Amino acid sequence: MFRSHRRGLTPSETLLIAAIVAAFALIVVWRLVGDPSQDARRLTINRVETIMDALERYAIDNGGVFPTTDQGLQVLVTKPSGAAAPVRWNGPYIEGSEALTDAWGAPLQYVSPVAGGDVYHLWSSGADRAQGGKGADADIKSWDRPSMVP
């Protein structure tokens, strides 16, 4: 019977295995950590899309009428009272007021009605909280679909 006298791995085999494990670990860490500025942008885009869906459900329940600028987005969370209260509020349309802010802590901006045919405008001014910008600083606008790409 033939028995090998070799025990363990050679140094080159050990290095090869270590390199493979290190590469795999880097890929896993990169996928978990990602780019924080892009993560915040993705979160804000998701929130804008969630609110857009909620606004549509609100309008369906209220005969095609969207909340006014004065009512604001809070009407999606809690039923307003008084003369401006919707007739058939069937909410809450979103859970919690946190969804009404962008990932950088600023309130999402909402105007309705707007001139030019749009029913409403909903936007975030991005990480810099100023109009315009690039990357994480770029505005996210409901009426400008390319701005809603991460």
List the helices and strands and how they pair.
Elements: H1 11-33, H2 36-61, E1 109-111, E2 121-124, E3 140-141
Antiparallel strand pairs: 1-2, 2-3
Write up this protein:
It is a single chain. With 150 residues, the chain is mainly alpha-helical. It has a single domain, classed as Glycoprotein, Type 4 Pilin (2-Layer Sandwich), CATH 3.30.700.10. It is built from two helices and three strands. Strands 1-2-3 form a three-stranded antiparallel sheet, with helices on one face. It is elongated. The model has no long low-confidence stretch (mean pLDDT 85).
Cα-to-Cα separation, first versus last residue: 64 Å
Largest sheet: 3 strands, antiparallel
Amount of beta strand: 5-15%
Q: How many domain units?
A: 1
Helix fraction, binned, reads 25-40%
Task: Classify the secondary structure makeup into a structural class.
Answer: mainly alpha
CATH architecture: 2-Layer Sandwich
CATH class: Alpha Beta
CATH fold annotation:
Glycoprotein, Type 4 Pilin
Which regions contain 5 or more consecutive residues with pLDDT less than 50? none
Shape: elongated
In short:
With 150 residues, the chain is mostly helical.
Keywords:
single chain, 150 residues, mainly alpha, 2 helices
